[in-house]
């Protein structure tokens, strides 16, 4: 595709600029949010997202891809307010986030019914707005590809084929299930250049990573500051991947959540002291440059790869 759907409308793929490809402005449990809304301080949550966005704009970030989808409390009006106030380009997604089961409504309808729901988000608008999704997202965790997860993966693949927007996944490298995701997408006829197997940086297993890369897909080394691997080990693996000539297949991001209601705030701070929206550009990239990664390589990763994923041919 030559354009990308952002919260504020279509943009040319060449206008994405410096992009953080996987960050969340707000994640909420849908049932809690809908049934116990008094538990949230809306203005405080908004301020957290606003401050984080402004801090990366100072670093030169022009676009944020936010893969907060159904199952994570997606709220396009919240994103729209941030985009309007800051001028940041936000690309939101469609799909369904579940590690195991999906709601009965989707269980009792077929794959194409689910795919149509995703296609509507891309072509008509999300949550009865005219705001369109720019990419597709789905998840597989250590439970593996359960029957419902497979249904989502196939629906995502079919929506990709119909609309041309790319796919980002949440995978669990310890069980190597990025390969299973790829297998399903390829079986459904998706072009591997339109696929990003996310969270692939959660492993140091280069054999597994190479198998993903051999398919022609992109990999997300996208959890800097969080997840099961400390930052130096992430970099060590990344450096090997880059030295093997894979600069044009890699994404860097943080999977940062400006707020997430799954855990008390203090617990997040204690578990993930380095995690922030600015960590990648403040710490990680300068360290990679000291290790010999060139400005040109950084440009390829942070600008060109994003364009090539959205604009795959
Ligand atoms: Zn995420």
State the helical fraction: 40-55%
CATH superfamily: Metal-dependent hydrolases
* Overall pLDDT level: 97
Instruction: Give the radius of gyration.
Output: 18 Å
Protein model, in words:
The chain is of the alpha/beta class. The chain has a single domain (3-310), classed as Alpha-Beta Barrel (TIM Barrel). It has 12 helices and 10 strands. The protein has helices at residues 30-35, 42-58, 76-86, 104-107, 111-123, 147-163, 177-187, 206-214, 231-243, 265-271, 279-290, 295-310; strands at 3-6, 9-12, 19-20, 63-66, 89-96, 135-139, 167-170, 195-197, 218-221, 250-252. The protein has an 8-stranded parallel sheet with strand order 3-4-5-6-7-8-9-10, with helices on both faces. A two-stranded antiparallel sheet has the order 1-2. Strand 7 (167-170), helix 7 and strand 8 (195-197) form a beta-alpha-beta unit. Helix 5 crosses helix 6. The longest helix has 17 residues, at 42-58. The chain is globular. The mean pLDDT is 97. Bound molecules: zinc ion. Zinc ion is lined by residues 22, 24, 67, 255.
């Amino acid at each position: 595709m030559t354009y990308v759907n952002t919260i504020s409308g279509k943009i040319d793929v060449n206008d994405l600029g410096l992009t953080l490809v996987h960050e969340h402005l707000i994640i909420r449990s849908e049932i809690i949010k809908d049934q116990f809304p008094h538990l949230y301080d809306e203005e405080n949550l908004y301020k957290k997202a606003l401050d984080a966005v402004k801090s990366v704009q100072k670093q030169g970030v022009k676009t944020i891809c936010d893969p907060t989808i159904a199952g994570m409390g997606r709220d396009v009006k919240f994103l729209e307010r941030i985009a309007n106030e800051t001028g940041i380009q936000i690309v939101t997604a469609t799909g369904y986030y579940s590690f195991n089961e999906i709601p009965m409504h989707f269980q009792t309808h077929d794959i194409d019914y689910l795919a149509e729901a995703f296609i509507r988000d891309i072509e008509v608008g999300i949550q009865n707005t005219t705001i369109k999704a720019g990419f597709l997202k789905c998840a597989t965790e250590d439970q593996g590809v359960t029957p419902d997860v497979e249904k989502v993966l196939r629906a995502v693949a079919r929506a990709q084929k119909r609309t041309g927007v790319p796919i980002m996944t949440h995978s669990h490298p310890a069980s190597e299930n990025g390969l299973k995701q790829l297998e399903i997408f390829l079986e459904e006829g998706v072009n591997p250049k339109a696929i990003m197997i996310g969270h692939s940086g959660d492993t140091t297993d280069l054999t597994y990573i190479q198998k993903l890369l051999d398919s022609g897909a992109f990999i997300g080394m996208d959890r800097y500051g969080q997840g099961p691997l400390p930052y130096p080990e992430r970099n060590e693996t990344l450096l090997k991947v880059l030295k093997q000539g894979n600069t044009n297949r890699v994404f860097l991001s943080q999977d940062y959540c400006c707020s997430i209601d799954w855990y008390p705030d203090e617990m997040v701070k204690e578990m993930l002291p380095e995690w922030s929206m600015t960590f990648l550009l403040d710490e990680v990239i300068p360290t990679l440059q000291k290790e010999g990664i060139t400005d040109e390589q950084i440009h390829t990763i942070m600008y060109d790869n994003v364009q090539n994923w959205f604009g795959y041919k």
